[in-house]
Write a structure and sequence with these properties.
51% strand; 1 helix; 6-stranded mixed beta sheet; mainly beta; globular; signal; Lipoprotein; 174 residues; 5-stranded antiparallel beta sheet
Length: 174
């Protein structure tokens, strides 16, 4: 009887342990290629014909809004950590936001040039003093592709806050 119970317990544990690589919205043409941390869910959204306008309030806090731009697309990669039901204030989310020219088939941006893509990192949690959006100036964005698809690779660090996502790779079908 103990062996049956131990066997069933092991099966239950193994069936509950899986990693989620990505969840994709039905209307998006973008697919994540990099792995998502196993304790959460990653999504990607492509906003076609939009650009990022970075806003700063009187306290230096950043935010953004999307504006119409027929020559650009905006990409928003989101990581949401799974939160146990009995934990209050346990939500944790990160976002990577940037824009790219629709005609961009090949480029490399790094350092200060990352702001040409309006690269932002957002961290949202109950982490006093370490939440909000941050401009990213340390890292690299690589774009490659052809008339049918683009491959984006984003690697960056944010020295102002801890981060879970620091490297993302995805493909966009055109």
């Amino acid at each position: 009887m103990q062996r049956i119970f131990a066997f069933l317990s092991c099966c239950l544990i193994l069936s509950c342990c899986n990693t989620k690589s990505a969840v994709l919205s039905k209307n998006d043409n973008a697919v994540l290629q990099s792995a998502c941390p196993g304790d959460g869910v990653c999504t990607i959204a492509q906003k076609q014909n939009k650009s990022v306008s970075v806003l700063e309030d009187e306290y230096g806090n950043l935010n953004y809004k999307l504006e119409d731009s027929p020559s650009k697309s905006v990409y928003i990669i989101t990581y949401n950590r799974n939160v146990p039901k009995d934990v209050q204030d346990g939500t944790y989310r990160e976002e990577i936001i940037f824009e790219s020219e629709n005609s961009n088939k090949s480029s490399v941006m790094e350092g200060e040039a990352l702001q040409n893509a309006r690269l932002l990192f957002g961290r949202f949690c109950y982490c006093k003093g370490q939440t909000g959006y941050y401009r990213i100036n340390q890292g690299i964005i690589r774009v490659s592709g052809d008339d049918k698809k683009r491959v984006f690779s984003v690697d960056f660090t944010n020295p102002k806050t801890p981060q879970v996502l620091s490297s993302v790779k995805f493909t966009v079908r055109l």
